Amino acid sequence: MRYILLIPDGAADKPVAELGGKTPLAALNPPGMAALAGGMAGQARTVPMGVAPGSDTAILTIFGNDVKSGYKGRAALEAAGAGIGLQEGEAALRVNLCSISSDKRMASHNGFGIEGDDALALADALARDETFSGLARRAGFTIHPSPTFRQIGVLANAGSEPFDLAEPHMILGRSIEEHLPRGGRADELTALIRASYLALSAHPLNISRGGRAANCIWPWAAGRAMALPDFADKYGRSGPVISAVPLVKGIARLSGLPAPDVPGATGDIDTNYEGKLDALLDGFKAGADFGCVHVEAPDECAHARDAQAKTEAIRRFDSRIIMPLLERMPRIDPDFRVLMLSDHLTLLSSGAHDGAPVPFALYDSRDPGRPRPFSEDSTRYGRYIADGSVLMDLLFERE
Ligand SMILES: [Zn+2]
Question: Measured in angstroms, how far is the CA atom of residue 317 from the centroid of ligand 1?
Answer without folding.
Answer: 15
